[in-house]
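[recover] target loaded
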């Protein structure tokens, strides 16, 4: 399960607070610059991948600081982020293979 959020720059400390949380911090948390994904407004894209309990906790504790993206947009961004990770892994394999 995953959820993707838009985080304004002034709320960036929320990412550190998420990583410090006992449950949320054990999930995969990836941040990307929103401008890399054609967002007009400056900020971060935050991908949280893990248990439904952890994502529910993110929504409750940090929902007022971040905008949860709708399913269509989240699915598109998730595919782009995973493709980017795959290409990076393949590049490292090529270098060290």
């Amino acid at each position: 399960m995953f959820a993707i959020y838009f985080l304004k720059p002034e709320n960036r400390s929320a990412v550190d607070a998420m990583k410090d949380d006992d449950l949320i911090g054990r999930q995969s948390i990836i941040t990307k610059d929103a401008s890399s994904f054609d967002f007009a407004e400056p900020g971060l894209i935050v991908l949280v991948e893990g248990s439904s309990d952890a994502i529910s906790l993110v929504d409750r504790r940090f929902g007022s600081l971040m905008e949860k993206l709708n399913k269509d947009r989240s699915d598109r961004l998730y595919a782009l982020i995973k493709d980017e990770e795959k290409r990076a892994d393949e590049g490292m394999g090529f270098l060290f293979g």
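[recover] notes: The longest strand covers residues 2-7.
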